[in-house]
Amino acid sequence: MTDQSDPKGELTLRAVAMPSDANVGGDMFGGWLMGMMDLGASVIARQRARCRTATVACHRIDFLAPVRVGDLVSNHAWLIGEGRSSMRIGAEVWVRREIWGDPERVAEAEFTFVALTEGGTSRPLPTQEQRT
């Protein structure tokens, strides 16, 4: 866990936490939050790969504070590193309680994605020249 006062990376997804995804205590299920983080991280992976991608691993996820019904949930993500066909993507979730509160970091994770062909097999990432 890192100590910081501003989100890291690019804003990739934003949603309001709804009751249908909460437990009986009014907190969002961890699986819901992990799915949001995966989806937000995939935006960065797809931008880099310029093709379909697949999540192949979640190396770690830290739940730092609960997400409650009514919170404005903002997912931020960034490219950590890359291999021949894979990308490591960092992700953070920040909330504003009841939409108007101060931003609070509630989760962080690291995912690995792989670039895919139309047939679903891995393919090399485009070079810098291919991306422009």
Strand coverage percent = 35-45%
* Side-by-side strand order of the widest sheet: 1-3-4-5-2
Number of strands: 5
Q: What is the N-to-C order of secondary-structure elements (H for helix, E for strand)?
A: EHEEEEH
The 3D shape can be described as elongated
Terminal CA distance: 35 Å
What integer value in Å does the Rg equal? 16 Å
Proportion of residues in helical segments: 10-25%
Structural class, judged by helices and strands? Answer: alpha+beta
> Main β-sheet: number of strands, strand sense, barrel status?
5 strands, antiparallel
Separate helix tally: 2
Give the overall average pLDDT.
94
Layout of strands and helices, then pairs:
Layout: E1 10-16, H1 30-49, E2 53-63, E3 72-82, E4 86-96, E5 103-115, H2 128-131
Antiparallel strand pairs: 1-3, 2-5, 3-4, 4-5
What does this structure look like?
With 132 residues, the chain is of the alpha+beta class. The chain is 18% helix and 40% strand. The protein is built from two helices and five strands. A five-stranded antiparallel beta sheet has the order 1-3-4-5-2, covered by helices on one side. A hairpin with a 6-residue loop joins strand 4 and strand 5 (103-115). The longest helix is centred in the first third of the chain and has 20 residues, at 30-49. The mean pLDDT is 94.
